[in-house]
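Q: Joint fold for the lines below.
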Amino acid sequence: MDLTPATALPKLLAAAWLLPLASFVVILFIGKRLGPHGKWAGYVASGAIVSAFLLSFTAMFIVWLPNHELPVAHHGDHHEEGDHYDAPAGADHHHDSAMIGEPAPLASHAATDSPFQLVALQEESHADEHAAAEGHAANPPPTYYFGDWYALGQFGNLKLTIGYYIDALTVTMFCMVTLIASCVHIYATGYMHDELHDPYHDHEVIVHGHHLSRPGRFHRFFQYLSLFCFSMLGIVIAGNVAMVFVFWELVGICSYFLIGFYFERHSASTAANKAFIVNRVGDFGMLIGMMALWASLGTFAFGDKQDAKGQTLLTDSGAIAEPGIFSQLRTAENGYRLVPPASMIAEETRQQPAIEAEDAAAGKAGHWLLLVAGVGIFCGCVGKSAQFPLHVWLPDAMEGPTPVSALVHSATMVAAGVYLVGRFYPAFSPEALLVIAIIGCITLSLAATIAITATDIKRVLAYSTVSQLGYMMLALGLGGWIAGLFHLITHAFFKSLLFMCSGSVIHAVHTNDMTEMGGLRKKMPITAYTMLIGCLAIIGAGVPLTPIGFSGYFSKDSIIEQAWSHAQTNGGGYWIFLVMAVLGASMTAFYMFRLWFMTFTGAPRDHHKYDHAHESPRVMTWPLILLATFAIAVAWPAFNLTRVLEQAQPVGTAAGGSGMLIDDLVVPAEHLSHAPDIKLRAGLAAFGSALIGVFGAAVVYLWGYLNPNEIKQTFKPVYTLLWNKWYFDQLYNVLFIRPALFIGKQIALFDRGVIDWFLHSCAWVCRGVAGIFSTVFDRTLVDGTVNTLANWTWDFGLLLRNLQTGNLRQYVFFIVTGTVFMFVTASVVRFFAFS
Amino acid sequence: MTISLLANLLTEPPGPAHYMTVGAVMFVCGAMCMATKRNALGVLMGIELVLNGANLNFIAFGSKYLNNGGPDLGLDAPLIALFVIVLAAAEAAVALAIALNFYNNHDSIDVDRADQLQG
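A: Joint structure:
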């Protein structure tokens, strides 16, 4: 088999991508007939996703890694001078530099009068111990394979295609998504066994005074799950924004199906609607962003057109033949810095010589457009990744079955938003990144506070997800591209683990309420200890200043380091990002261990449920153990996850950037956050805050020195505020839902009163006119003519009837006179005609 | 014109025109007889007159003596006349049968009473 990346990767990943679709189609058509009650549908779906996982791993370990040399390690404690991006791994990037040309000469960097000059200067001043800032001016474009499978349409130069963009991030995401989805599928074959019964009794729905009985929907569940995986992989492999949007919506509809899986329950159908509608709000912004890009750049493609060998196509003059978004925004001539191309600056602005003189003023228009495009795309991510202010749907999405929550919250839907921010990173201007950071910061602190008071085990985890997604957005917004996506990957493992553990607990005690649990550690040890691993991973447990720890330790520390670096560079109000990140870490530790202590330690609060509890079957515990292994080890430096991600680091972002509209905003280069002093302080801060959180939880819930109820009473107003989730649902109810209903009612009144009235009047007039036509024209004129003709014919017939006398002599007389008459006539005519 | 035509007849030697005149007179008499007679047998006689008036024409046109060597109908003319006589005989047989039947039904052969075919 040909294992050249350019030919093998698209094939392998397309197969991995399409397998879940095949499984979806099979279950769609013959799902019910697959074994008793559709039992084999679970095997079909699991088989498809496990095969996809094997293909993804083949792509990663047999095709990608042997062919793409990892960048030189410079992460870790021993940050050495001169260990920088200025020496990109040669083999990795050889053709990029060959094809696109050498990165801009360093001299031109200082010579240009662009705002980026400022960055260079500030970098120098802020990072004394680092090499000269010019060294980080640019990293070349990462290696990627870009191409089209199918052209949907072409409008002049604008092309819409189904294509692929495969880089290290794509391959990593494929491995992560398929691995977690495989675990979830296998786990779900056990978890969903109730649905194999016909009829299934839903105890939460009362119909006519009885529990609802319905046919089991086992096969349906796996059908949706397959489509969900297909859609998510579609987003990951997508080669252009339009294709992302298509699969974005497919993910949305799958989440709608799965959250509303128990659609007979009112809460489930409402939650499904809410998730769908809230996401539409975000997608609206995304469409605006896409329009801004389409109209100004004339393309949706991420990458440049490549030939069969994966090399960029060039025109005869050496320019890129069909440049994608990224290479239009970050050209080699500009040293891969983000500069709005001429097409983003309004025509009239370009042509006015007066303004041309003032480059800054002319550039501003393009910068605003870039900001609109960036924030617009980010709006879609806000919806999908449940960021403030669209975070309200995610906790409600807990109405879906727990395996769905595990998948949605770790590998698919909410990850899609963070992934897209990462994928789209080269197009985000520093101001757009600031917006992302602010939204992420608000989200992470808001959700963490709510999680502290929640008692529903799944909702605690849901708010925890929202908070962690906030972390990722914060990291991305502060310039920590690798940190954000690193956390996305590690979080996926421990969050799916936590959700599946909570599902195992719910499976055992049949309740979500933590106040009815307690002491379950002895009854279900595997669940308890794998969940403990998940908790330790999410709080970032590790030995500070050493590379020993759970996966979260590495990713969260790198986020805090980035926040520290950003705060140090910018100073002033930007410290709030760091403070909130550290406080958030503390809260994370508190609520996670509150959850664990309340569920697994102490005395059982509900003895009936405790006695009933049991460890889950092996089909559910094995995925837990597997995921726990990954939750511990996936981020270990030995596995090079960050270095693989670094291979995909967007072009030009290693140099950071500075504000275009806000002059003193600087996005620090990511490697600056690995400076020893920042690393030391950030590591200790993260460790300390986590320790405080765990200690606090232990004081209240493990050792019982403080009574939670007394604390509730003491901080009653705060507690009520948090218990009601900051009243966001109520606020939206007043702000949007009620006005919408009110306006709707007014429009309905207008519809009935004015439009209907008008239409009815029109109809009445039409009927009147038609009536007049009917009587005057049709009945009188047309009918009259026809009747008259008929009467004439009748009368003529009667007249002729009189001739038929039956009198022989008369006939003879007629014949004779007739003959004579004809003879005379003929003679006369002949006489006059020929004489 | 009519006067001069009659005068020519009187002065000319006998030719087809004379026969045609006699035939025409016979034809008109027959027709008048058919139109005025109420007796069915009278009507039949009128028919005979009409047919024989026409036959006279054929015979006149067929005679080479009358035509002075000009174009004539030759033997065809007497044959057509013979056919007409045969047809007249057949027709008279049928008509007499009708008349007899009519008489049986109505005790009369008045054609004015045979008006059942009126519309």
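Q: Anything notable?
A: The longest helix of chain B spans residues 76-106. DSSP finds four helices and no strands in chain B.
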